Amino acid sequence: MTIVETPLKALGADRFSTEDGVHLIARSYRKGARLDPHMHREAQLIYASSGTMQVTTPRGRWLVPPDRAVWVPARHGHAIDMLADSQMRTLYFELDWLKREARGIRLDREFVVQVSPLLHQAILALFERNGGAERAALLVRLALLELRHAEDSSTFIPLPQDPRARRAALLVLASPASGEDLATLAGKVGSSARTMSRLFAAETKLSFKAWCQRARIAAAIEQLSTDRHLSVKQLAADLGYASVPAFSHAFRQVTGRTPTEFVEQTRA
User: Fold this and answer.
1) Fewer CB within 10 Å: C terminus or N terminus of the chain?
2) What pLDDT, on the 0 to 100 scale, is given for residue 267?
3) CB contact at 8 A, 177 and 216
């Protein structure tokens, strides 16, 4: 996805504003829906109060279950795939408003945030549209303040920029359970294991082994979000884990929850 080729989309007629410079849009999407690569003049906080999304930017992919949200700066290309039926609640911020109101918060890059109960309730309350302008303004500023402490990269899959390393990464993402060793994968893309290891560490800030584990957990999140009848035991086996405890431990390391806890939340 190249930002130069990404269309600039205007906000839809279904938006409403809490004040000059802040706009809200509530939309529902069915599983499998895709918002093709695009960008906006406004920065945005993308949140699904239910359902799971995948947000892709040139930097990488984010898996976004209901307790996560993604901040996307203005004019940053991104695509969104709905991995389950989703209720999307998006806040859009014009640049002049952010410059004036969001001092001290770094918002010039995309990142995923862990949605605290407070941030969750603030976002939902904004969409009630019955509390008046003063209340809405306070809720918007509360949401921004929560972004100061909420960054969480656990569901982010960084994509290396080097062409060989990116091809290797895409091979893993296409078949995360294959378990190919680094030397085999490097050979497929015309590189050496040593070079590939160096590239992954430098460009993703993860070792190749840690990156592959995150890719497998991302695949698990996607499967658990899209197949309501898939058992954790079957998924662990499909992804090449020796046992359910081993899979649960790896899942908790990345997401902070066990697969069972994730299922209970997303299917509630």
Assistant:
1) C
2) 56
3) yes
Whole-angstrom distance, CA of residue 247 vs CA of residue 260: 11
Tokens matching residue 215: 């890719």
Q: How many domains does the chain have?
A: 2
H/E element, 199: helix 193-204
For the entire predicted model, the pTM comes to: 0.81
Least confident of 32-46, 146-160, 182-196, 235-249: 146-160
CA distance 224 to 113: 21
**Same-domain pairing of 9 and 112:** yes
Tokens 């605290």 map to which residue? 116
Per-residue DSSP letters for 11-44? PPTT-EEEETTEEEEEEEE-TT-EEEEEB-SSEE
So what's the pLDDT on residue 213? 87
- Domain with 8 in it: 3-147
Integer Cα distance of 27 and 14 in angstroms: 9
Please report whether residue 155 resides in a domain.
no
Q: CA gyration radius for the chain?
A: 19
| Residue 28 and residue 88 in contact, taking contact as beta carbons nearer than 8 Å | yes
